[in-house]
Amino acid sequence: MVYFHNAPASLRLKELAKKPLDLTQEGALTPERIRAMRTDGMGLELLYATERVSHETLEALFSLSLEMGVHDKMVAMQAGEKLNCIHGYPSENRAVLHTAMRDLFEHPQSSPVASQATALARREFEKLKSWIHGVEAAAHFTTMVQVGIGGSDLGPKAIYLALRAFQRPKRHIHFISNVDPDDAAQVVREVDLSKTLFVIVSKSGTTLETNTNEALIRHYLEEEGLDPRKHLIAVTGEGSPMDDPLRYLASFYIWDYVGGRYSVTSMVGGVILAFALGFDLYAQFLKGAHEMDQIALKERGFKNLPLLAALLSIWNRNFLDLPTSAIIPYSQALSRFPAHLQQLEMESNGKRIDQEGNSVSFETGAIIWGEPGTNGQHSFFQLIHQGTTPIPLEIIGFRKSQYGEDLLYQESSSQQKLIANLFAQALALSVGQKSSNPNQLFPGNRPSRILFAEKLDAHTMGAILSFYEHQVAFQGFLWGINSFDQEGVQLGKRLATEFTKQFVHKNKGEPLDIRGFPLGVAFLESI
Amino acid sequence: MVYFHNAPASLRLKELAKKPLDLTQEGALTPERIRAMRTDGMGLELLYATERVSHETLEALFSLSLEMGVHDKMVAMQAGEKLNCIHGYPSENRAVLHTAMRDLFEHPQSSPVASQATALARREFEKLKSWIHGVEAAAHFTTMVQVGIGGSDLGPKAIYLALRAFQRPKRHIHFISNVDPDDAAQVVREVDLSKTLFVIVSKSGTTLETNTNEALIRHYLEEEGLDPRKHLIAVTGEGSPMDDPLRYLASFYIWDYVGGRYSVTSMVGGVILAFALGFDLYAQFLKGAHEMDQIALKERGFKNLPLLAALLSIWNRNFLDLPTSAIIPYSQALSRFPAHLQQLEMESNGKRIDQEGNSVSFETGAIIWGEPGTNGQHSFFQLIHQGTTPIPLEIIGFRKSQYGEDLLYQESSSQQKLIANLFAQALALSVGQKSSNPNQLFPGNRPSRILFAEKLDAHTMGAILSFYEHQVAFQGFLWGINSFDQEGVQLGKRLATEFTKQFVHKNKGEPLDIRGFPLGVAFLESI
């Protein structure tokens, strides 16, 4: 069997990495290279001339994708095969069908499993459509608060902020996620509870933070003399403890084959996005995501944007040994998109075993972080330019602003200055600068790539979201790991229960369990 | 001369790092260790039993601090010696006196330079006090928008959010930072311009993003028939282009010996914090920072909290070879504090030369990132527990919530669950878990430390801020680098100007300068 570490292309890439392209050399980064090293699809351009790859590197990377059979895996995933598993060990053993959530347009999947998932998704989609129209017609509720954590929070929040420029009038949107009681306390102060809908999101219906916040919210509503049942919406699995029409105004369903971090296009993001932006924009967002699903599924070679991006990431991570990757959107609207991608990538690919249960002998998921540019330039870019650990950048930019309100200042507009800064960073990082003053020396050879589009609208946002979902999946396929489970969060959960038990003892006036949990008790004593 | 790389203690630490303490071994992490490995000051506790340090390691780390003379450097810094320099090369050659901004309480510095800086700071402090009282008495303005980028944005925003629970009634606070015109467009939609003060913050008065946003804001105000001069406040250097009473309602001064990322306690943070929280809370915040300055200055050994933290960070970074560090506050109010620390640390210590101008032969500043817990547990913690690159955690927690609104749910409160999760993560990461199912195996030995306090109030926030400022400074002193300049941002700025020129050509209908800037033109063509 071919594994990532012994694939022939991997060995070739290892050789190439001993002397990677030197972008600081005269004649390495040329106008011709910049023009040639770009590819596009759906109006998105991927520019990668400032990555440290030669044509030979790219060829070896695509060979790797063939050797690891990633196209077949993408086909299998979208068709609903049970890719979420570890062979030979108990595991979730599920299909991975977030793509079915938006397979509502042209070229639908034909496999029975995927078709069935799409039929269910369509049912919820239509249910949401009529429910939202009802809410809009009644014109009573002005405010929606999403209550969820992890995938039920980061993705919906990131996309909401990304598209807030197109928000319907008189809509107020908030999020409560943390079990920290100050999170809910802060939000309830900012809303008129009588006009607020709370969307409680938990697939299992048993997420501790979300259940706890729901209890707080019910309490706040009751204190105001309001009936929680008239203000709470459930987004949950059918048959979960939260699937209860006596306790919620409405329920929308999600399924175990849609992982939390891949659930933005499901009802997890759907209810709040449709309320905030209107149902049509939500549908356009899904359509954008679906079209990128098609690119991931059908394109071969450079036209497969997420595959190309995944290969470049693998080159940086495994062959150039760069431990992190920074997402830098030159768009303030994408301020929380890096936090979503941080979850998407790190929870998916932060794994230490392959799908056969073997410990991997290579690095998997990089540490993903980032903030918008130009802000980052006035913050951590010092380290990116002159620090000792190079950081590859995934830059995102747009030709036009969302509001289109701009001004010439010193003969250029703000949007032009924004774009100028974006390209300036990619160029500066790659070519560097020589200087006799050592503090003004820039070593260069710091890789970046740029995803560029016309404007951040709902359709484009869907495409970018899906682009990243598939970049992450392709990386997992290349490494041969399971990008769809999260066993690594279980130990902390179990120990948190043990710590909580000690607080319960304390609340009941009982002694702490020193014998049963000596380490825990020592921590609690010490504070 | 003793350098970091050849200090006797460094060589001893290198030896120790070949076999660092194995926290997964029976008897390594004991209740006794947990109780012993903690230190406190000002009500802040630092728990470090879950770092991979033995007593021998700690001894060697403190020897290193003696060999590198870091105490003398801290004394010199707070006394106003010109530490911001590279010897033998042109450099900023300035004092580093952010501590003077809050040296307004007991035990003031006696050196003439520091006293002079404090006298100026006190002048602005008193000016702000009477100005804020005037604004409050007039009761006209309800809203303040801070317009600044980098240190003029991240720190003030992080601290404002941290203390928002104590906000004065009827105050609305916003921030505009990005040159992206959508940033300003979004904020002006959310405010009543007639009741809004804009604080324009730029030390030089020439920060491109801030000048551009100021122009946009003046335009928005004029469009509403409002006089910008009655709505704009300047925070800038005396004599800068922004120091102009004809164009601003009021001016507050800052000085070149206060770096942007160290400027929260100066008028950069002062105006908006005093408006939002009231002047007294701002003063308490300064007092907390000042008291921690005294600890950094006067304590030797373990009682010097920021020094101990700096040494632990150096151990993780240089001897255990861990490239990043994650800041995980178990407090939603600290949601943007990691972004501030990201700037503080990465801009300060992301350096490739020492203060003599030599290229360093060791790693400097780590990549700093983070999000609040428990949220992170539902996101990137999968990689922290089971990924291939260990990530040290700097956990922050509090015994009490800010609002004190809580509920018993399943017999424990939200705040108790929050604390339970905090300790559970530190414990799980250190001891790990054996399992016959490879997916349920946790390797452990992933270091963390915990900064714990009673409650996140203004005084404590000041102490925590100053704790980190000095942690960063001590790291820089240990490495022998200049933590106070940022030459690494210059190349990108220069190239951005070149790109902007091309847009100016375009705006004037002139051809792009293909001959003068072929690479730039190729980028602009290609999109």
**CATH topology group of the largest domain in chain A:** Rossmann fold
Overall body shape of chain A? globular
Rg of chain A, nearest Å: 24 Å
Largest contact between protein chains? A-B, 154 and 155 residues
**SSE class of chain A:** alpha/beta
- CATH C-level category of the largest domain in chain A: Alpha Beta
In what range is the share of β-strand residues of chain A?
5-15%
Please state the average pLDDT score of chain A.
Answer: 97
Description:
- 2 copies of one chain form a homodimer.
- Helices cover 44% and strands 12% of the residues of chain A.
- Chain A folds into 3 domains: 30-52 and 304-351 and 365-478, 3-Layer(aba) Sandwich (Rossmann fold); 98-285, 3-Layer(aba) Sandwich (Rossmann fold), CATH 3.40.50; 488-525, no CATH class.
- A 6-stranded mixed beta sheet of chain A has the order 1-2-13-10-8-9, with helices on both faces.
- In chain A, α9 crosses α10.
- The longest helix of chain A is centred in the N-terminal third of the chain and has 27 residues, at 112-138.
- The first copy, chain A, has 527 residues and is of the alpha/beta class.
- The first copy, chain A, has helices at residues 8-17, 31-36, 55-67, 70-79, 112-138, 154-163, 181-190, 208-223, 267-277, 279-298, 305-319, 337-349, 381-386, 414-431, 458-479, 490-507, 518-525; strands at residues 38-41, 44-47, 143-147, 172-176, 196-202, 232-237, 250-254, 324-329, 367-369, 393-398, 408-409, 412-413, 448-453.
- At the A-B interface, α2, α7, α8, α12 and β9 of A face α2, α7, α8, α12 and β9 of B.
